[in-house]
Each structure stands twice: as structure tokens, then as C-alpha cells.
Amino acid sequence: MKHYTWLALGDSYTIGEGVPLHYSYPYQVLQLLRGAGHSFHAPEIIARTAWTSQELIGHLERQQLLPSYDFVTLLIGVNDQYRGLPEAEFAESVEWLTEKALQLTTGLASRVIVLSIPDWGATPFAEGKDVAAAIDRHNAICEDAVRRKGLHYIDITDEYRKTGGLPENLVEDQLHPSANVYRFWAEQLARVMEENI
User: Is the pTM of this model over 0.85?
Assistant: First the structure.
């Protein structure tokens, strides 16, 4: 039986800030896929709270990676938006990251999956700030790269705007998602991954 490898790239959403590691969405995906009978190594996670897309790139350039992975996932950009960094620079970063993901999957576009950026404006932490338009622009940049390269795109933003601010869907900092939210993301991601095994 093949043992699949998976590289998960991102920021605080990918490491599951505020929840135990096994409740992060990569580890919930892992359990769903293993439960469905697929043999997966634990995901290699390259992510850190507050990372921008450029900071992720900087780390990837210094990291010793495997020659290739069966899957690469990417969820990045909220900190680019939060810090007000130029959107043109974010577009360049997304281009680099999606190209790198394609290289690492040996050109298998069906094995590269990009998740949309959640709208943190839905949380109590935002204190009424409306960042929806800016989040939409950043997601449009991601979606454009996905469309041009034939990758997979999973929209988690719309659902997050409806439910991300509910008490049961927040951790203590009133910003990051709880295990409930990560479960929803994991179900979407596991479905796409299973379809492309």
C-alpha cells in the first residue's frame, strides 16, 4: 500500500493557533483520510502564526524539503491583508508559492489545493472592522493563480463569515477558529484529496 506524503503551508490557521495540534485542520484531515482507509504520513507543516506570504517564502527557501510530495496545500494571506502590505506583492508571492507547490508535486496540478483566506472581520477581535472587501481582493488573487494553473480552490470564506464569530467557533483569543471550524475545513479538504488519490 502506498503511503502518501503531504506538505501543508500557511500561517496560524494551518498550525491551529489556540487548539491542540490534533484539532488543527491538517490533523483532522489526516484522521478522516486514514479513517477512509488511505495510508498517509503525518503532514509536514510549514506554518507559523503571523507569517505573511513573503515570510513563508523566506522559510521555504531555507528549509530542507523532500524532493516531492503527493499533495501540497496552501492557506496564506491574512497577515498580508492585516498588515496592509501591497496587493501586487501578494500576487507575486502567490505566483511563487503556487509554482513551488507544482514543482513539489512534480507538476500534478490536481494534487495542489489552495484554501481561501477566512474573513477575520467576522470575529469579536475585529471590533467592527470591515475587512471583507480587502479579504475578497486577496482571495481573488489566489483564485486567479489557481484558475490559470489548473489547481484546486476551496472556498471556506463564505461559511466562515456566517459562523466564525459564534462563541463555540472561537478559541480564547476571540480571533482564531475552534476545532469545530477546522472540522468543516478538514471535511472539504479531505474530500478533494480523496478524489485525487
Answer: yes
